[in-house]
Design a protein that fits this description.
Elements lengths: L4 H59 L2 H19 L5 H11 L1 H4 L3 E10 L9 E8 L16 H13 L3 E2 L3 E2 L8 H4 E10 L8 H7 E10 H9 L2 H5 E7 L8 E4 L11 E7 L2 E9 L6 H23 L4 H28 L4 E6 L5 E4 L1 H7 L14 H12 L4 E9 L5 E13 L2 E10 L1 H15 L9 H17 L6 E8 L2 H8 L1 H16 L7 E4 L4 E7 L3 H16 L2 E4 L2 E4 L2 E8 L6 H17 L5 E3 L4 H21 L3 E7 L1 E2 L9 E9 L5 E2 L1 H10 L3 H14 L13 E6 L1 H4 L4 H12 L6 E6 H6 L1 H14 L2 E7 L6 H6 L4 E4 L1 H5 L5 H16 L3 E4 L5 H9 L4 E2 L8 E2 L13
Parallel strand pairs: 21-22, 25-27, 27-28, 28-29, 29-30, 30-31, 31-32
Antiparallel strand pairs: 1-2, 1-6, 3-5, 4-5, 5-6, 7-8, 7-10, 9-10, 11-12, 11-15, 13-14, 14-15, 16-18, 16-21, 17-18, 19-20, 23-25, 23-33, 24-32, 25-26
Helix pairs in contact: 1-10, 16-17, 19-20, 20-21, 22-24, 24-26
Pfam families: CHASE, EAL, GGDEF
Subcellular location: Membrane
Protein name: Diguanylate cyclase
């Protein structure tokens, strides 16, 4: 049927109308869905924001006190200096201040000062406290001579600190050093601590008032101190106000940020207390709530998607117009990008200059060049170099087309100042004319950082002395100079080891130990000659290189240092410590010695000083004892390497029943071996004495215990049905408080039945510290372990020990068993040990069984077990054998 023109026109009208209706429906539905998502996200964001605000308030409460506590700790360290030496001068005061790094560790630090007390004069209302020592002195000169008694806030804090010997905090007040800087910039506080006369810390208030000689103070600017403490998320999201609740009316405000509170937000209130004052913190959020960005993103994205879907239905009729609009938009963006590129080229951080190659004058300088160099256009390029000859050579080389790139040069900057730069010059052509293009980067900060890192790599951070690496380098240089020059003067190496330093760390903590080291270094420096090199080699070990000395002068210098250290009285938190040092000395007056030799000789001499009673100087002597100690040191180092490289080995030797009625099963004892780097196997007699002397036995014993239990089923061909595995424990391990815990934890970790572990303790060790050994033994036996008393008879034997020691087995020392067939006394002793052991219900084991005749006598004496080459030769444990050799024996 034909369609009338009116119908066609109506259809044409209905199609756009239908598209518009559907577009509206899609838009409304999309916006409704977006609104619901945004609402839910907003609720979650508010909950997260409230939790975050509470967390930030808690953090602010703790962090505002941290710089005050750091200042108090620095004052406490300075107080100990006065307790040991109450006649501190300005130089020494500045040295201690610099060493504590107070300016770096306490934000807002202005000055550390000492005010000496002048007692009440006749007619004077109170004592005066005038500042005598100030560090740093620069910009703080106004404090010298200032009487604290004229400042009521400071005086009140001083008196509180004096009577209680606790840090005291003043009320906020304008600092004298910032007079005229504005009230906010000048506001500060002072943390105070009293100073008492030399001696122990006074215990009562009356004694404190009697021995008071002055007061220490650290002044702090409130604004930088608190901004640093609160920096980060606290100030990013929260407005903060801090008020001093103890301040006078109108002076309560301590700190406040510019308020821009978020409407309807709750105020978080916290209270911080320090030094007798109370600060109230009030915090509330400002700006946008964290997380609202996601809400906005949901709204924006959902609304955009909804609009785009709606517009998609209407886009067919406007495609061409939209394409044209898009093209115009892209062209506009391209123009903007080009402009940005031009701006970026001008704002490059590198210095870019263009000079006429013919005249050498500068034609163009970018912004960075103008800022560093000033108005240099039309100036000769060569004049930018502090060394004009270098500039001339660079221009000549670049002008010939050569490469002059990445060269370090000193450049003359604005107002005549100089800086280091990495510069490059190249010849270029611009519009057909020759030019020289110079690109330079300021490397001054990088060079300063490099120098600072180089210094830190060569120096100890605590004492500012050379570290071990730098000390050994300088020692090697001295040896090289001596090897090249026949007329080189002799020099001495001193190895200084503090006595009982670990006691101070254990009792008073590492902060006390660090402060003691600082005081000792300051004291020792006063006795050094120009050119002497003092270094910190380890925790409490120092080294000294003294040049151009003979034996007598070296010994005088060593004694001077020893007496200096002995004279230091260290006081920390009410405790007074006496300090001494053992010093080993080596005089280098001939060629042929190496760095390793010198360090070993010095360590050996120091060890001799300690063995001789400590607090003395010993010179190295090449004798039998010194050779033995050097050999032991070498073995100790080789044993350390073996532990690190897992080159320790285990052999097992079977313990064989001698009586037919003995309990069934296989019993073994583990024997330690060391494999050298070349594969040679070393028996324990060569390295165990060194391990005992140098404190390595606890580490060795723990390695054996853990390794044995971790591979218990792979020790012996019988596998996990092994009846007993015996492990030797050294005296040093028995004295280790954590040994029993380690053994029991390892047993639990690897699920080895405790009754299959036998721990052997020598008679000498057991007698040396009977009470401690008994406690350890009883704890291990309660867990199920068996205990053997090894080498019985080799020491100061007493059968009374068998009555008091809770052991399960006695192992008769092999020296009696070896002579059993030829020495009637040995037979009598073995017989007595066997009878008494059986009387106590103990098993008896004979060691060093090396012949059939000995076996017959042992059986006759009813000894339970035997161990020796005639019964079984030691073999490598199964898990350390080559794979093709791990077969059942």
């Amino acid at each position: 049927m034909p369609v009338s023109p009116e119908g066609a026109r109506g259809g044409a009208l209905r199609a756009p109308l239908a598209s518009a209706v559907w577009a509206l429906v899609v838009l409304v539905a999309g916006l409704a869905f977006t609104a619901e998502l945004a609402r839910r996200e907003w609720v979650d964001a508010r909950a997260r924001a409230e939790a975050m605000q509470q967390s930030l308030a808690d953090a602010a409460q703790a962090r505002v006190v941290e710089p005050l506590a750091s200042a108090a700790l620095a004052l406490r360290a300075m107080q100990t200096v006065f307790l040991s030496n109450d006649d501190v001068d300005g130089t020494l005061f500045a040295q201690y201040h610099d060493n504590l790094h107070t300016r770096q560790q306490v934000p807002g630090h202005v000055a550390t000062a000492f005010a000496r007390r002048t007692p009440d004069a006749a007619g004077a209302p109170r004592s005066s406290y005038r500042y005598q020592l100030v560090a740093p002195l620069q910009d703080n000169e106004a404090l010298l001579g200032l009487d604290i008694a004229t400042q009521p806030e400071n005086l009140a804090a001083l008196e509180r600190a004096r009577d209680a010997d606790t840090p005291s905090l003043s009320a906020p007040f304008p600092l004298l050093q910032f007079d005229g800087a504005g009230s906010g910039a000048a506001q500060g506080v002072v943390v105070r601590l009293p100073v008492y006369s030399r001696g122990a810390v006074p215990a009562s208030e009356a004694e404190r008032r009697e021995r008071e000689i002055g007061a220490l103070a650290v002044s702090l600017r409130l604004e930088p101190m608190l901004r640093h403490a609160l920096q980060g998320r606290i100030l990013e999201y929260m407005h903060v106000e801090i008020r001093d609740l103890d301040a006078a009316p109108g002076q309560e405000m301590v700190f406040a940020t510019d308020p821009d509170p978020l409407a309807g937000s709750a105020v978080q209130v916290r209270r911080a207390e320090f030094g007798g004052r109370r600060w109230e913190l009030r915090l509330w959020p400002h700006g946008a709530v964290p997380g609202e960005g996601r809400t906005h993103l949901i709204v924006a994205a959902g609304g955009l998607i909804s609009v785009l879907l709606a517009l998609l239905l209407l886009s067919q009729a406007t495609t061409h117009r939209r394409a044209l609009d898009l093209g115009r938009e892209m062209a506009a963006r391209f123009g903007e990008s080009e402009a940005r590129f031009r701006v970026l080229n001008e704002l490059l951080p590198a210095l870019v200059l263009l000079a006429d190659a013919r005249s050498g004058r500068i034609a163009y300088a970018n912004q960075a060049a103008r800022e560093h160099l000033g108005p240099v256009v039309d100036a000769p390029l060569a004049t930018l170099f502090a060394d004009p000859a270098l500039g001339g050579r660079a221009m000549a080389e670049a002008g010939r087309g050569g490469a002059w790139a990445s060269q370090e040069a000193v450049i003359v900057g604005r107002d005549g100042g100089v800086f280091w730069a990495s510069a490059s010059l190249a010849r270029v052509e611009v519009n057909g004319a020759p030019y020289l293009l110079m690109v330079a980067t300021d490397t001054t900060e990088q060079r300063e950082l490099t120098e600072r890192l180089r210094y830190q790599a060569a120096h100890d951070s605590l004492t500012e002395l050379c570290n071990r690496r730098e000390f050994e380098r300088r020692l090697q240089v001295a040896l090289d100079v001596r090897a090249r020059r026949a007329d080189a003067a002799p020099f001495a190496l001193l190895y200084i080891d503090l006595d009982q330093f670990k006691l101070i760390n254990d009792v008073s903590g590492h902060t006390a130990g660090d402060q003691l080291l600082v005081q000792l270094v300051h004291a020792m420096r006063q006795h050094l000659r120009p050119g002497d090199v003092l270094a910190r080699l380890g925790g409490d070990e120092f080294g000294l290189l003294a040049f151009d000395v003979d034996v007598a002068l070296a010994h005088v210098l060593a004694e001077r240092l020893r007496r200096c250290i002995e004279g230091v009285m260290f006081v920390w938190q009410g405790r007074t410590y006496a300090v001494s040092a053992s010093i080993g000395m080596v005089l280098v007056d001939h060629d042929g010695c190496t760095l390793k030799d010198l360090l070993a000789w010095a360590d050996s001499a120091c060890y001799q000083a300690k063995e001789s009673g400590r607090n003395r100087v010993c010179a190295y002597r090449e004798d039998e004892d010194a050779s033995r100690r050097r050999t032991e040191m070498e073995w100790a180092n080789r044993l350390r390497w073996a532990l690190e490289q897992d080159r320790l080995l285990l052999d097992y030797q079977e313990i064989v029943p001698l009586a037919p009625a003995s309990e069934p099963g296989t019993h073994i004892e583990l024997l330690l071996r060391l494999r050298e780097e070349d594969g040679t196997v070393v028996l324990p007699g060569a390295f165990l004495p060194a391990a005992e002397r140098y404190g390595l036995m606890p580490a060795v014993d723990r390695w054996v215990i853990r390794t044995a239990l971790a591979h218990f089923a792979d020790l012996h061909p019988c596998g996990d049905v092994l009846r007993t595995c015996a492990i030797n424990l050294s005296g040093a391990s028995i004295e280790d408080e954590g040994l029993a815990d380690f053994i029991l934890d390892t047993i639990d970790e690897f699920a080895v039945p405790a009754e299959r572990i036998c721990l052997e303790i020598t008679e000498t060790v057991a007698v040396r510290n009977l009470l401690r050994v008994v406690r350890v033994i009883e704890r291990l036996r309660r867990a199920g372990c068996r205990i053997a008393l090894d080498d019985f008879g080799a020491g100061m034997s007493s059968f009374g020990y068998l009555k008091n020691l809770p052991v399960d087995l006695i192992k008769i020392d092999g020296s009696f068993v070896r002579d059993l067939g030829s020495d009637p006394m040995s037979r009598a002793i073995v017989n007595a040990v066997a009878q008494i052991g059986h009387q106590r219900g103990l098993k008896v084991v004979a060691e060093w069984v090396d012949g059939e005749h000995t076996l017959a006598v042992l059986r006759e004496l009813r000894v339970d077990y035997g161990q020796g080459f005639v019964l079984h030769r030691p073999q490598r444990v199964l898990f350390q054998r080559p794979r093709d050799a791990r077969r059942v024996a």
